[in-house]
Write a structure and sequence with these properties.
about 30% helix; alpha/beta; seven-stranded mixed β-sheet; about 200 residues
Length: about 200
């Protein structure tokens, strides 16, 4: 089955206070670069959705084999950015993994876990489970693309996960619990990653 990855990196990071996607971790990579490297390590095609300060985010992705989709209406919320990414990727995919740029602890093995759970259950949605939460990264089969494309405003992937709860298969993923919303979160991520040798 053809699977692609959509990485969301379009927001303005209002809670963080600056563009968090380009904030650099101790290994010298920005959040968006690290997420893109993780996605590409799967060998799957990658679409990155940019929005706020598109030029700065693109610069972080220089030299990588991926496609950038600029959501001109990024200010309307995550739903529109996800919709934009799915529209770009869907002609070439039978399933999509949705990733966020601000989950720096997520590994390629975590993404493989989604794929392993999906393989025997191709009609199911597969989502990460952490701290009693179901959310990204998550994998959606093609039957869910119309619902993802219909998203708007602040309604992101979790809205579809709730709508289709009976079809969601869960994968325990503690690494997904940390999403960077504040400078303190970034410092915590850097500490957990262990610096340059991580």
């Amino acid at each position: 089955m053809s699977v692609a990855i959509v990485l969301l990196a379009a927001g303005t990071s209002s809670r963080f206070g600056s563009l968090k996607q380009v904030e650099v971790l101790d290994d010298g990579r920005s959040l968006v670069r690290r997420a893109a490297d993780t996605a590409l390590a799967t060998g799957l095609p990658l679409w990155v959705v940019t929005g706020a300060q598109d030029d700065r985010v693109r610069a972080e992705l220089a030299g990588l084999s991926l496609r950038v989709v600029h959501n001109l209406d990024w200010a309307s919320g995550m739903g529109g950015s996800l919709s934009c990414g799915v529209r770009a990727a869907e002609p070439n995919a039978e399933a999509l993994i949705v990733m966020l740029a601000d989950q720096p602890l997520v590994t390629v093995d975590d993404l493989y876990a989604l794929l392993r759970e999906h393989a025997p259950h191709p009609g199911s949605i597969v989502a990460a489970e952490y701290d009693s939460v179901i959310g990204p990264p998550c994998l959606f089969p093609a039957r869910d693309f119309p619902d993802l494309i219909a998203l708007e405003g602040d309604r992101g992937a979790r809205a579809v996960l709730r709508q289709q709860a009976q079809r969601v298969r869960r994968v325990a993923m503690p690494n997904a619990a940390l999403d960077v919303d504040t400078a303190e979160d970034l410092a915590r991520a850097a500490a957990l990653l262990g610096g340059p040798s991580a």
